[in-house]
Amino acid sequence: MTYLAVPRPRLGSRFTFLGGALLAILLLTLPGAVATSAEAQPTEAPGSSAITASDLLKIRQISDVTLSPDGRTAAYVVKSIETTPGDERPYAYRHRIYTVPANGRTEPHILTRSAAGATDPTWHPDSDRLAFVRPVEGTPQVFVLPIFGGEPYQLTDAPNGASAPQWSPDGERLLYSTSLSRDEVAHELALERSFPDERWRRGAADTLTAPTTRRRIVLRDSITLDALDTLDVGDNRVAALADSLGALRDTIRESVPSASTASPDGSLLEIRKWLGERRSENDPAVITRLDFQGERALDPQVSFRHVFVVDVPAGVMTGTPDRPVPRPITNGYRSYGGADWLPSGTQVVLSGTPVADAHPDRIRQRDLFVAEVPAAGDQPSLQRLLRLDRYALSNPRVTNDGTTVAFIARNLNHSGYAQTEIGLFALDGRTKPRVITSEYDRSVSQIKWSPDGWYLYGVSAADGSFPLIRFAPFARADTSSNAGADTGARAAPATEAETSATTFAVDSTMITPVEPEILTNPGIGVRSFDATDATLVYAATQVQNPYEVYTSTVSGGNARRISSHNAAWLEDRTIATHRRIAVERDSRTIDAWVIRPPGLPDAETAPLLVEMHGGPSAMWGPGEATMWHEFQMLAARGFAIVYANPRGSGGYGFEFKTANFQDWGTGPMNDVLAAADAAAGLEWVDGKRQVLTGGSYAGYLTAWIVSQTDRFDAAVAQRGVYDLSTFFGEGNAWRLVPTHFGGYPWEGAYPTPAADSARTDTLAMPVDSTFFTEGQITGYGLDSLVVDSLRMAPREALLRNSPQTYVRDIRTPLLIMHADDDLRTGVIQSEMMYRSLKVLDRPVEYVRYPNAGHDLSRTGDPQHRIDRLLRIYEFLTRGITGAEDDQETASP
Known about the structure:
Blueprint: E1 23-25, E2 38-39, E3 61-67, E4 73-83, E5 91-101, E6 109-110, E7 119-123, E8 129-136, E9 139-146, E10 153-154, E11 163-167, E12 173-181, H1 182-188, E13 213-220, E14 227-232, H2 238-245, E15 248-255, H3 268-280, E16 303-311, E17 327-328, E18 336-341, E19 347-352, E20 367-372, E21 381-388, E22 391-398, E23 404-411, E24 420-426, E25 434-435, E26 444-449, E27 456-460, E28 468-471, E29 503-504, E30 517-518, E31 525-531, E32 535-542, E33 545-553, E34 560-561, H4 567-570, E35 578-585, E36 588-595, E37 604-612, H5 628-636, E38 640-644, H6 654-657, H7 666-680, E39 685-695, H8 697-708, E40 714-718, H9 724-730, H10 736-741, H11 774-779, H12 794-800, E41 814-819, H13 828-839, E42 844-849, H14 856-859, H15 862-881
Parallel strand pairs: 2-37, 21-29, 37-38, 37-39, 39-40, 40-41, 41-42
Antiparallel strand pairs: 1-35, 3-4, 4-5, 5-6, 7-8, 8-9, 9-10, 11-12, 12-16, 13-14, 13-15, 16-17, 18-19, 19-20, 20-21, 22-23, 23-24, 24-25, 26-27, 27-28, 28-30, 31-32, 32-33, 33-34, 35-36, 36-38
């Protein structure tokens, strides 16, 4: 039986698509082909104006753009790479906050210089100070800094760190988020009832370490400070007694006597306590949860994000007052985030997981809640604001007048493929929520209201660009030329609910499409932004510059650059440009771009490098910041580059995104090769010399392509997955298996058991089934499928789509690259692919990076990043220079 969906090319020949299978539609003028041309060899050092590998150290990345409430000043974070003399590693990342006038009349000013760094700037309502996050002995804490001079004041001392600071509307309090373990939730928030531990015949009572201390509230005389009464945290008498006595409330800790001791030689309970103490120290790690893999290490214990509030001392601008005591505004064995204040300053809207009798790893639903800001000693009080059945709601943003909350919604019925949509909900609860982006059919993120609440801004991944967009959700429908303009009147509300309901099932009455307005030019990638009623300030990536800050009118007009963090060192550099092409494949238009090596003489041709993106739902375009340096460096080294957004990519609508269901390999491969064929037909490209690389999903696709065709002279597969059944077990992105392939590795026809097997049943699963019971859909984290029926059983789909299945057909020289601590995809599959090719005596090499994770190419050690890029260049150059260069004796 053959599993190939396309004819196999003859090994040793170049793969071409036949006849009408490929129609290239070039969106640029292609000169006629020349009869002969010289071959450029990318082996010489580039000129002084070229982008080099070490230029990575010069790039300044910009994020966290935020405008002061008075609209005059923008603050943002610059991430740089600096030398660290005397340290074990020669380079380190530094984060510093800069400010710049929103009108750009003066140069940016560095606000924080400490090597400790500073991130997450947020303005005080008076526009005279910033809260920001800085590590203290490796743990992030919130600081407050006057912008006109002075020293930062450390506001928090959270044991597990503090992040995402948010000032209250009056500037007297500040929210922050922190992470708590299950034990810490039980101890710090005084909770006893826990969630199921999913440990056979064990309960939470003999799994949790018994608390050694507990918090209590002491009521003290306001003058003498003598103790008047002591109550448990959460006692509903605290507030009333404090008011009646005129007492101050103080929090203390007191010891809790242990019911029994831990002993390896005692009773069963004492043995369990002894084992539990070792488990609590992860020595050994005892794993009973579903999502047990973190990004770079095992994560056997679940943790929870909670939100706390502190009263900001009056003297923070001029002195160092005592650090305030934080109060939790959320509780429970659940996580909360995206907090936004209501105008009253007494309540907060946030996103969180609902109460459920299930392990947190199995809960995908997220609702919106309103939390009261508690007084000292009071328990957190939350009530549900909005639930959309089968949706995960996040990132709530409240208008300044407190009438409406916008939020991001993700359809759980489309797990693995869902577009992020924007919803609106009136806070009086009298109308149904609205979903305004269903017809836009592109994901939207980073939503923010304009100060007057008329416009809602966001960033979208759309058609190869990352534009800044805005909606006018309250504008009345108008067919005139002024449609969408601010008429001063709001549209009629959505259908009024029968009662002030909080739970809804999304139906057609809630779908009220609003057309977005695109505010930035095509090809720009907006990374971060903020808006006033008059000005936009944003950080963006363009082909000519990886990161700068720009300002424009609120409609996107008169855009201009107001920073020079990268422009200064790029002044004398030659930048390669991107040119868009499009190809037709299987009745789909596939966007692609080609990059010509800068300075390539007209009489010469350049070898073709095919670059591919991961995800698989990522999207690339000229404004993709993560590839700016790699594209420029490899083009400067003499490669012609083509990259495409094949089926399964984001940014082209739901149907395009789901077109790779049960087809990670053949369909996307055909799209990529169609783009490569179009690029190879350009007169300045040498189509006889082609190489290939990609990372993550594109590492998979690299291995898949070289298992199906021998057209490439060399290939580099980076941090990929190669055996999908193994990926299900060893990668923390394991949910891609059931959501993209319709089920699990064991779902399909069982093999015939051996004659002496105790199992005699041969259960063949029906091919037209979705392979799920309702219990499985809820229990295993798979919410539903994006199709009504499957083309093949999941077991067969995983086998057919795994490059490891066809490893004996790989003859292309292959470099496999992986990081030691990459638990996103797992490491074992790369070892399996390498060993298989070595046993088969194929040309293969394997590079492993120590102390590195999946994001090595973007956030890894700078030396590793440069090393990786140069090893890709060196290996691919071996493929296209031929045997005449084999005299090189060095072994890098």
